[in-house]
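Structure request: DNA replication ATP-dependent helicase/nuclease, Ictalurus punctatus.
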Amino acid sequence: MSLLSLREKNVGCVGNMVLAGRMTALSGGVYVHHFKRRQGEHVLIILLVGDREVISDQDSRFIGIAAGYVTEITNTGVTCSLDKNLSKNSSDMVFRLGQDEGTGGLSTHLGNLSMLMENSPNSERLRQLIVEFKPPQFIDSLSSVLPREAKDTVANILKGRNKPQKQAMKKVLLSRDYTLIVGMAGTGKTTTICSSERILHACGFSVLLTSYTHSAVDNILLKLKKFKVGFLRLGRAQKVHCDILPFTEEQNRTKGINTLEQLEDLYNQELVVATTCMGVKHPIFSRRRFDFCIVDEASQISQPVCLGPLFYAQRFVLVGDHQQLPPIVQNAEASWESC
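Returned structure:
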């Protein structure tokens, strides 16, 4: 790996890019640009379709001259939909594409709130539960949700779990809309999440597992891996635990996926999909919905960010402890109002 490629992998950017081909202007002030390496070398695959990127010049004289999203990636180039027309710049200008984590975070907050206010059945349902505090509803009998062939598996999973953990797992399975699981540090919340996921998996339910940090997501996945529960991990490889890498989208996409059908099979083959709360901008969520969404460390996530994953599941489970660390809010007025 060249020094340039190594730097790009560590920093999370792609440099030495020039415009290639014609720019296409779309409605709403969107401009589609094609970039290729200036000297024809291959592009290191560290970007993902759906990533938000900030475009700067190679020498950092002009930073943030455009921003937008990656729409296509090949070995030799990257296609982005941007908010500025870069073809007006000098034809020999060299660009650098870097991930936009700051502005992307703000747009995620506002985007999630906007979705919550949409005039749609899903948004109305969430508003009733979250804003209007509609009480959660539960199914009366386990027999209606627990398949006969899964009973022995579920019984084995419950062995060794204490009474509160068993009660929490039962509530998750019986829920019609949401379940809240509260526990102090060391009470076995992560074990409860793992066991709940194993039970839901055994019953044939699809699960979206999420949290705010990559480490929190991977801590649960490491437990699932020990029990040979299959899953797909979304996110950048450099931010994922090394033992989880074989389950990542990036690793699986290198195994002979050449058609849209093969890519769709990759996204749909596992019942369990895991990502951070910020990762729900991934294109998979435009096509797939889940039976359950489990959010770990929910009390440490700001409400607008925590909303994001909930749009993509029929039921959700929030796990955390509101007596521990609250979400980090830097604005003094916003922090005071949230108390």
